[in-house]
Amino acid sequence: MKRAVSALARLGSLFALSLCVSRPAPAAAEQPREQAEPASAAPAPRVSGLRRAAAVSTALVPGAVLHGAGHWALGDPVAARRLMAMQGVGLGLIALGGGSLALTGASRYLVAAEIATAAAGFGLFAVSWFADIYGTSNRDPGAVRYAAPPFIQTQLGYRFVQDSQFDYRHFWVEQFDLYSAGLRLSPSAWLSPQGQNGRYGLDIAYRFIGPRPGEQRPLGSRVDFELGTAYQRFAPEQFDTTTFTAALSGRYDLGRIGYSMSGAFADWQIGAGLLRYAYGPKRAQIPSDLETFLLARFGVGALLRGPAARGSEVSVYYDHRHDDLAAGLKITGIGSGAIGHFGIDARYFLDENWGVLLDARVGAARVLGASLLFREPLRRRGGS
Amino acid sequence: MSSRWLLIALSCIGCLRPSQERAQRDTEVGKADTLEVAVQVSDGLAAVRALDAERITLWGSAPGFRFTLENRTQDPLDYRIELQNCLPDAELRRDGLAAALPELEASISTRKTFVLELPPGSTELRVTTADADNLEPYQFALMSDVQEAIDRVQDIYARVNAESEVRYLLGAGDLTERGTRDQLERFQTELTALRVPYFTTLGNHELGPSPSLYQEYFGRGSFHFDFRGVAFTLIDSASATVDPTAYEWLEGWLDRSIDQTHIVAMHIPPLDPIGVRNGAFASRAEAGKLVGRLARGKVDLTLYGHVHSFYAFDNAGIPAFISGGGGAIPERFDNMGRHFMVIRVGASTGVIDSRVVRVD
């Protein structure tokens, strides 16, 4: 209990510090520019409620099999063809990656490329179906409001972790995202005083494509290069892990496919990592192990509207990582051990500064929790 | 209070202990009873394949084991004990008696039948060999991952039979494609051509229609035995995890064998030497926990299957082999093909040497 209070106090002070370092808003500060319409497509014609309902139904069935069917029903054949093409490419990649895996018996020389190809295929397949459903049900694409990346964002929260292999249950979570031009620095800490476990991470990212702090763009696509490291200590189990990762990650604004899909996005990440296991106790002098792993993540989501402030969004994703707290799904049968985990990430901002994050993941462990979010936008003086 | 509700809510999503049911069933292996007779095999080292008032059939998971037969009637029974999957020189002894029980002639080297008069009450019996207390080094073989290559498995058995010094074959799972009754029957039939018994755990391919079928046929997924001073632990990792119940057993086995030569085998390795493939545990944290524990338990050798090739590596400093050469879809470009391993071990010498025997 004492440890828990102490850890909470430490995290609280870090959170308070982040509030202090955020830049005060100048009196004459200009708010971020309003977003423009997506450049990719013209506004769609009005659609009757009946036709839209039929389109949504079509997107579900037979749309599950033929992605884009909903947009055909909606009267948007251009978007429909694009979605069908995405589905086709996705299926092709699944066949290529999966077929090659089967034919080569997961050969050590090809397996990384095979899994990455198959994962990309699944990602495209999932995105094209989601985009069809989202687009057909999107009654007001013009209402989408994009947010400029903040100068700083921080979260302080709690996660409940249910893992049959470890005693820890409760984690206090603290994370900062500090932006400077194209660079992002993201230190993070997950502390479980109860289970004597802690995970400390540091990510550094550079944005090649996409909005930087204070920049508001009509579409939310972006591409980042990320380097990361994380250290996790398992005190009762007498070992710790250190990971090093390098990845390309990004977001594709589905408004580029069709105006009806404005506000929806697909997230992706591909990369590789190195995982070092160090075993205790020190006096036993047990040699450490080094293991490579693949980073592959894809997700779909949508920006929230209504009373939600800019930057509010919800996404669901698949993450191939097996080295974090959620790790890989425990499934029985032929695919045992190979699959990563699934998650939902929902961010709801009450205003320009404050918001909440809901985080749920299912893998070898279940992770569920929420964080208080604070962000400080970059404000510019006198004009854009 | 809140944690309990969270646990209940979350238990609806996914499965955190996919091998829990198998671990529970492990505790039932080796136990059976009828109105007239009951049997209990110590440590579950044999599966009870048949039991009635006239006979019992046991499928052995280890070179030696003890079991208790209870005659619940008031009269002695003329009783027939059939041992399957036993060493060719296995003997059956009553506890406290020096002489082995007489056996009937058998055409299959790994099957033996004994006839005895079973008095009312409990009778302690022991399956053993004349060399059980000999601490000199000996050889065993390792072969896993047969799956759809069952039609060609006799090639491998013929090569194993040619290794005259091999005492038994050890398996790290994936005997069948899906673990159906037909496939398990077929595997058992093919085994009759093998000169030595096959002591094995199960793999993820045995978890098809009903995971418990495997245990009905071949016994426990997680078990431990000693033979000639060398300890063997086989662990059920078929779901890319080890159930917490099996971890409790493992703790005891590691503590008990810390001063012995100790070999641990399981199907899915905690760590895949080609990490990007993920032919390993679902959780790398669990992998670290297990491998670290094996190292602190001074395990001498770890043996795995699952990957259809051959790898020699270390985990936490423990020598490790992945040998999945039973014929299932092979890993290409590895220049390996079907194979099995022959490993020489001794009580005081540890693991002396090992070699790969190529079949193709």
Task: Characterize the structure shown.
The complex is a heterodimer of chains A (384) and B (360). In chain A, the strands form two sheets. In chain A, strands 2-3-4-5-6-7-8-9-10-11-12-13 form a twelve-stranded antiparallel β-barrel. Chain A has helices at 2-21, 49-60, 69-74, 77-104, 111-137, and strands at residues 29-30, 150-162, 170-180, 183-192, 197-209, 222-234, 239-253, 264-279, 289-303, 313-319, 341-349, 354-362, 366-377, 380-381. Chain A is of the alpha+beta class. In chain A, helix 2 packs antiparallel against helix 5 and helix 4 runs antiparallel to helix 5 (111-137). Residues 13-41 of chain A have low confidence and may be disordered. Chain A folds into two domains: 49-137; 149-381, monomeric porin ompg (Porin). By secondary structure, chain B is of the alpha/beta class. Chain B folds into two domains: 23-128, Golgi alpha-mannosidase II (Immunoglobulin-like); 138-358, Purple Acid Phosphatase, chain A, domain 2. Chain B contains seven helices and 21 strands. Chain B has helices at 2-10, 20-26, 153-162, 181-191, 211-218, 244-256, 284-296; strands at 31-33, 37-41, 46-51, 55-60, 65-71, 77-84, 91-94, 103-104, 111-118, 121-128, 138-142, 166-172, 198-201, 223-227, 230-235, 261-266, 301-304, 310-315, 318-323, 339-346, 350-358. In chain B, the strands form four sheets. In chain B, strands 14-15-16-17-19-18 form a six-stranded mixed beta sheet, with helices on one face. A five-stranded antiparallel beta sheet of chain B has the order 1-2-5-10-7, with no helix packed on it. In chain B, a hairpin with a 6-residue loop joins strand 8 and strand 9. The longest helix of chain B is centred in the last third of the chain and has 13 residues, at 244-256. Chain B is globular and about 65 Å long. The mean pLDDT of chain B is 94. At the A-B interface, helix 4, helix 5, strand 8 and strand 9 of A face helix 1 and helix 7 of B.
